[in-house]
Amino acid sequence: MPIRRIHELGDPLLRKVSREVTHPAEAFTTLIDLRDTLHEFQRTHGFGRGIAAIQIGIPQRVIYIEIAGQSYEILNPVILSRSEEHFQMWDDCFSFPNLMVHLERSKSLHLRYQCPDASTSELVATDDFAELLQHEIDHLDGILAIDRALDPKHSLMTRTQYLRLKASELPKSI
Ligand SMILES: [Zn+2]
């Protein structure tokens, strides 16, 4: 079980731009480590749906996602288009699990990516899946959720405080 350490906010590695995977087979061990590390994080924190290779110290454009009972192994993702419609949400991240960030994401997107067997695939994602993909693809470019905070004074909150508030008490949409 190759569980890897998750690099945390402040680690300069998280700001690096990850490199393209040229031979999909080289991502094989990365994907196993991502899956095992995601499962360990879910077990210890009680949440978590996606992880990017850079978060376990591997600067490859590789993402592993589990959502709605399905897993996705995504190499070299490219967002072909995004909806003009956006929505606001409170986001979190394995690299700063105790911090919530109020930000805006596109409501849907069209993605092209490579699979570990070297085939190319496309998908259309909406809502939860779309925002998760945007979060993970940002990691590949060294962008963190905190960079997208809507308002520096009111868009950051500890997880404890977030859980203390009811939805109606959360800061209003901007
Ligand atoms: Zn993250």
Write structural notes for this entry.
32% of the residues are buried. This protein starts with 27 loop residues before the first helix and ends in a 10-residue tail after the last helix. It has helices at 28-45, 127-140, 159-164, and strands at residues 50-52, 62-67, 70-82, 86-91, 99-106, 108-114, 120-126, 156-158. The strands form two sheets. A five-stranded antiparallel β-sheet has the order 1-2-3-6-7. The chain has a three-stranded antiparallel β-sheet with strand order 4-5-8. It contains three helices and eight strands. Helices cover 22% and strands 30% of the residues. Strand 4 and strand 5 (99-106) form a beta hairpin. The protein has a single domain (12-169), classed as Peptide Deformylase, CATH 3.90.45.10. The chain is α+β, with helices and mostly antiparallel strands and 174 residues long. It binds zinc ion. Residues 93-95, 135, 139 line the site of zinc ion.
Blueprint of the fold:
Elements: H1 28-45, E1 50-52, E2 62-67, E3 70-82, E4 86-91, E5 99-106, E6 108-114, E7 120-126, H2 127-140, E8 156-158, H3 159-164
Antiparallel strand pairs: 1-2, 2-3, 3-6, 4-5, 5-8, 6-7
The structure holds zinc ion (ZN).
* Sheet with the most strands, sense and barrel status: 5 strands, antiparallel
Strand coverage percent: 25-35%
| Fourth-tier CATH superfamily name | Peptide deformylase
Secondary-structure element pattern, one letter each: HEEEEEEEHEH
List keywords for this structure.
Peptide Deformylase; five-stranded antiparallel beta sheet; three-stranded antiparallel beta sheet; 3 helices; 30% strand; binds zinc ion
